[in-house]
Structure formats: C-alpha cells, structure tokens
Amino acid sequence: WRRDKALLSLSGTAVRSIAADDRGAWLGTSTGLARYNFGEDTLQWEALTKDNGVNAVEYDSIERLWVAGGDASLWLRTADGKWRDMAAIQRDIPFSVPVTAFTHLPEPPGTVLAAFRGYGVYRSDGLTWQALESGRRTTGDRIFCLMADPGDGSIWIGSETGLARIDSTGRTTYDTADGIQTGSVRAIAIDREGSYWFGGERGLAYYEPETSTPWVRLDQMSGAKLEQDGSSWQAYAEQPLTFQFSFGDLQTNQDKIAVFVRSVENGQPEAWVQASDGEYQLTLAQPGHYTFEFKARDQAFNYSPVTAVDVTAIPVPAMISVPLLGEVEVRIFQLLVLFGSLAIFGFGYVSFEIVQHRRRIVAAVERGYNPYISGEPVRRVDMFFGRHDLLRRIVSTLHNNSIMIHGERRIGKTTLLYQLANALQEVEDEEFWFVSVYIDLEGTTEEEFFHLLMDEIAQTVRELPELAPEQIEILNGLLNLHLAENQYTDREFNRDLRQIIHILEEYGAVQHRGCQVRLILLMDEMDTLSRFNHLIQQQLRRIFMRDFAATLGAVVAGIEISKEWERVESPWFNLFNEIAMAPFSTDEAIQLLTEPVRGYYMFEPDALDFIVEHSDGRPYRLQQYALEAVNQMLHHKRRVITLADVLVAHELIQLSGQQPKGSWGEDAARGELGVPQTPAPAT
User: What is the rounded CA–CA span in Å between residue 437 and residue 460?
Assistant: First the structure.
C-alpha cells in the first residue's frame, strides 16, 4: 500500500466513485470531481462540479467519461476533453432527480446505464434516455450499483432493498432462499470463474450459478369453446382463454422458476409476459391466427427451449329466429337480407338506367342531336380522337425542343394545336411548368408580327389566377401597349418578353415550386412567316436560339412553309423538329365515326366501310360524311345510320363541289415546298 503526496489533500473527503485509465483516475468525491495523474502525482479539480458532490463516474466503451453530480447534474466528457450537459437532453424524468450509479454496455458503442433515484434504470447513447423496464419496477428504491453481465448481457442491480437481475425477458429478485442476506447491496463483482460476489450492509455473499436447463410443458387449454384442428386449436374471439403449464428444474425450487408467454401475430412477436403460478389467461381481442410461445427461466437465468402452440380465433356467431328457417346465424341472415336488397336494388337500378337511356335516345332523335363538326377545329377534349399518340409524343419532346407540324390541308393541324394547349395545362411534370399560348398568324403583316405575338402572350399571362398587384403593374407597362404596331420591333419584343418571363418565374416559384418555366408558343398558319423579309425571320430565330433558349419553345403549323434559303446564315426553320401528320388509319377513322355517338346511334357495317373507303383517312372528310349521314338518319326518325344515309351524304358532298378524296394533285405539284411529298407537302 502507498499513499502519494497529492492524495494527502483528500483527507477528510469521501471518495464515492473511481474511473481509471492508463494515465490516471477520475475521483468522484463529496466535494466534487478531481483528476489524479499517476506519473506526475498531481490532483486537479474540475470547475464544473466545484463544491458539489459527485455520486458516480464511469467510462463508456468509446472512452467517454460520464459524471453524475449529487445536485442532479449530469455531464459527459468526450474523448477530446470537451464537456456536454447530459441533463438537458430529452427524458421523461424530472431534471431534479440525481443519478446514483453507472455502468457501461459494450454494445452499442458508447451506451451506458444510469440509475435515477426513485425512477429506475435508464439506457442512453448520449442522445436520448430510454427506460430499461417499461413498468419502472425499481421505483422507490435507491440503487447503489449496476453491473452488465459479460456472459449473457443481463443487468445486475444492487439497491437499498436487495439484489435484482434484468434481461430482455423480465426481472427476478434474490432473497434469503437464494442464499443472500436481506438488506442493501452496494457492490457487485464477477471473478474469472464466472462466480459472483455481492457486498452489502450484512457483509459479503458469494454466488456460483448452476447451469442445468429448466423445462416447461403446456398441460391444458381451457375456455373460449376450444376445438382441436390437427396440430392447432380453434377458439372463439372475445372470450377468456387459459393456458396451464407444468414446469421444473433439477436444482431450482419450483416457486423460483418463472414461465413467460408471448403471442406472435402476422410474424410480429409481442413482449414476453410472466405467467402467474403456471397459469396465463388472456382474451383474443379479434379473429385471426395467433401463435403462442412459452419458455421457463430459473434463478441462474438458464432458459428452457421455446415451445409454441397455434390458435385460430373465430368470431362468436349470433343466432336469430327466422320463420320457416328456424334458428339461423345472424351473419347468414344478414347476408340473405343483403343479397336480397342488392338484387332488388340492382334490378331497379338497371331498369331505371334502361328506361333513362331509351329516353335519352328518343330525346336525341327528337332534338336532332348531331355531334360531328365539319370545317371548324375540334376544341372539346371528349371529341378529340385518333391523334392521342402523336399528342403524347409532342408533349414529351417539348421539354428541350421546338416542333414543326406539317401535313396536307384540313388534316387536323389546328385541332392538334388546340388539344396541345389543353394537354399542356394538365401536364404534371416534376421539372417543368408549361405555359402555352395559341397564336393565329393568318392575315398578319410584317409590321404587326412581333406586336401580335406579345399581345397574345401578355393576355395569356394576365389570365393566370392570383397574379400579384406588382406583376399586373408590370404587364400594364409593357411597350406593346404604348407603341404603334409599326414601331414595335424585335428589340421591343425582347424587352417585353424578358419582363414576361420574369413574371412567370416569380409566379412559378410560388404556384409551381421547384419547376422551371417553359413558355410554349402554339403558332398556327406559320406559312405566313415564309413570305416575310429574311430579316424578320432571322430576328425570330435569334430570339429562340440565343436570348430565351432555355425558357421559350414553340409548336408551329402551316400549309406552305417555304424551305428556300439563299443566305449564309442558318435558316429559321432549322429551329424545329419536323413531325408529319398522316391521315387516320382504318381503326382511327372508325373510332372518330363511332365514339361521338356511342350509346345514341349505331352505324351499319356497310355504312362504316363506305365512309372509310371514300374518306381516305382525312378527318375533315370523315366528319363531313358523318354529319350529313346523321342528318339523313334524323330526318327519317331512326337511330341506325344505314348505307342509304351514307350514299345520300356522298351525293350531297359531290353536289357541293368538293372532291371526296381531297385535292392531292394540286398539292403534289408544289415541288418548291420543303416538307415531305408523301403524299403531299401541304397542311
């Protein structure tokens, strides 16, 4: 024994806890925390605990020091020497409760157990506190020492009421029947042979655990109208079910053996529950399949193998007396009533729908319902047929490209632009917010061109909901509202467009968060631009290519878009990816004819064949035949479109001076057009 000079200053000071490392030791004393350095024989006091006693100190597995003050302070010293106030982290214990003992756990790294006076044992990783036992069965005890068993990970607890042991299944306490004297336990140690030493107010106790395995057997299940079904059992739900066990051990008295039971439902096990005196009672709350597992544990924490039994819970049937049928389960009676009611309701509903449908057909014939459109673009989404694949293709391309649509006259280009505007309004894209503007260039002069573009763009932006007042003020200050058409050039257009895009970006940041603005100009009759001065064409190209390339896109359509170009600069039409609009296929043509009148009128097969053959897939001609044929049918108060109706329609179309198969010859002769000639370059 020796007593170094620096330690002489501790005379009269109670040392309550010690945590040593290779270079020294931390001393928790009645007057604070001190650090004793072995090689230097020096003693240094930590200021954070000055004049306050320290109850416990402990190193965790990652060399952090935990310090518990008598004034309920709680500190953690990290490996780099910094102190953290651990009393401030979240917990369900009053902050005035002190820690009386520590021990560390090897896993997870940095985990410690702390005994809070009167509140039991809690686990912490330095971030949160979690109760070791949900029931806080140590409430009221003052815990003096804790030890994590290196063999099985259980926790030994020495307190003012004696000795206890806890693992993930449950706890046990030790008394004189186990060989330990009554009274408090203040020190716990394990020797190299795996035996335990316990020191307390009654002296020292030695414990050498036995290793025999207990056994447990399910003797009986009762209650809940049990029935055995092979290896499993069937029982009524919401009724008491009782398990009765027999159990034993070679070296442990039966009253010291604990039996634990848990249920497993849908593969999810619940917590183990201790059976009282070998009997466990429960109620199956709801129907379903349950697996019950049980095991026994002796005082040395030896466990028996886990045994299981399967129980299927079924609902308790209720009975009702029914005339002619006698006693019937309420469930079956309810099903009979339900099916009968459904049958009556279904019959009534179907009958009502049949009558209503016939009334709608009669009313349609009487009022002359004819949904076909001849000569005008189709604006309604429900009347748009045959081009949905093309529409989806264009929408998927517009993120980074502009499109030129070409095809023969009356092939449906304007209709496609209208439907494209509708589709872009409904697109839910994670990256882009599309703003579409339809612009008809028919009859536009060079002087009006840029002015018209800005008029349509600004009007579309004005119609956006919830525009801010300052944004409306910017729109009112655009140059196109204050300059004549012949004074409004590409420079003024650029300036106004920059203002418009700024408004859209601010608006999109609020209404379409995370999306980039993509302004799409849907320009119809684009062949008008072919007749403009090359300077106007190049100014338009510059706007798309340089100034607003990331934000501005276009879909253009026209009849005779000239590809003649003799200048050095790249032509304006190279901006666009070309897409040809082909005539309808036979299936698309039949869809256009039959879908608008489905549920009202029907076509005879011969009538359909005639229209498809003489329309050559041209949507305008299909609509024209259908329009005239339906008028003939309505004239005769019928709802079936016959071949005779179609022949009359054919004659009317010929009398009107329109060739049934379009004007291919005239369009094909236009060799100067820069669009494919299959069969014609026009739109």
Answer: 6
With CA atoms as reference, report the closest residue to 236 among 284, 294, 291: 284
> What contacts 24+ positions apart, CB below 8 Å, involve 447-453?
447/485, 447/486, 448/485, 449/529, 449/532, 449/536, 450/488, 450/489, 450/490, 450/492, 450/493, 450/539, 451/480, 451/483, 451/485, 451/488, 453/493, 453/521
Distance CA 257, CA 255 (A): 6
Q: With cut-offs at 50, 70 and 90, classify the pLDDT of residue 353.
A: low
Half-sphere CA count of 139, side-chain side, radius 13 A: 7
User: Measured between alpha carbons, how far is 491 from 496 in angstroms, rounded to an integer?
Assistant: 9
Domain membership of residue 380 (yes or no) is no
At 306, is the pLDDT very low, low, confident or very high (cuts 50, 70, 90)?
very high
Q: Which of 119-128, 400-409, 671-680 has the lowest mean pLDDT?
A: 671-680
Considering the domain architecture, whether residues 394 and 438 belong to the same structural domain is answered as yes
Among the ranges given (95-109, 249-263, 332-346, 638-652), the one the predictor scored with the smallest mean pLDDT? 332-346
Q: What is the pLDDT of residue 332?
A: 75
Answer whether residue 377 is part of any domain: no
Sign of CA dihedral 464, 466, 467, 472: positive
Query: What domain range is 122 assigned to?
Result: 5-207
Does residue 378 fall inside a structural domain? Answer: no
How far, in whole angstroms, is CA 350 from its chain's centroid?
Answer: 40
Beta partners for residue 24, in sequence order: 37
pLDDT tens, position by position, 442-497? 888 989 999 999 999 999 999 999 999 999 999 999 999 999 988 999 999 999 99
CATH number at residue 440: 3.40.50.300
Considering the domain architecture, whether residues 354 and 497 belong to the same structural domain is answered as: no
Q: One-letter amino acid identity for 433?
A: W
Burial degree of 614 (CB within 10 A; 0-12, 13-18, 19+): middle
Instruction: Report the C-alpha gap between 260 and 169 in whole angstroms.
Output: 8
Buried b (16+ CB within 10 A) or exposed e, 61-85: eeebbbbbbbebbbbbbeeeeeeee
**If pLDDT is split at 50, 70 and 90, which confidence band does 277 have?**
confident
Total tally of structural domains belonging to the chain: 5
Cβ neighbours around 677 below 10 Å, total: 12
